[in-house]
Design brief:
Elements: H1 2-28, H2 32-55, H3 61-79
Helix pairs in contact: 1-2, 2-3
Keywords: Membrane, Transmembrane, Transmembrane helix
Protein name: Transmembrane protein 42
Transmembrane segments: 33-55, 62-81
């Protein structure tokens, strides 16, 4: 029973840390999409690493393909120059 309560508490602590980091990323990021995608990718990768360490899960070749695509997408997202939309000048009357 104590182990179950500890695990439930750990879930709440991990979620609180994740939300704290996510809100800081939203504040520091120029785009909410960049913060959301980065957070999702980091959750995916950290879950896989913890699954391997704690439960001995194996990583299939398809998982490696998914990781490569995820990392390439993150690189494209974070290295692309932002597209600025020109704002029309106001007419003076």
């Amino acid at each position: 029973m104590l182990l179950r309560l500890s695990c439930v508490g750990l879930v709440f602590v991990c979620n609180a840390v994740m939300w704290t980091v996510f809100t800081k990323a939203l504040r520091l990021s120029s785009s909410s999409a960049a913060a959301s995608v980065t957070t999702t990718a980091s959750n995916f990768i950290s879950s896989a690493i913890l699954g391997r360490l704690l439960f001995g899960e194996t990583w299939t070749p398809l998982w490696w393909v998914g990781l490569a695509v995820t990392v390439c997408g993150l690189l494209l997202l974070h290295t692309a120059a932002p597209q600025l939309v020109p704002v029309p000048a106001e007419k003076k009357e």
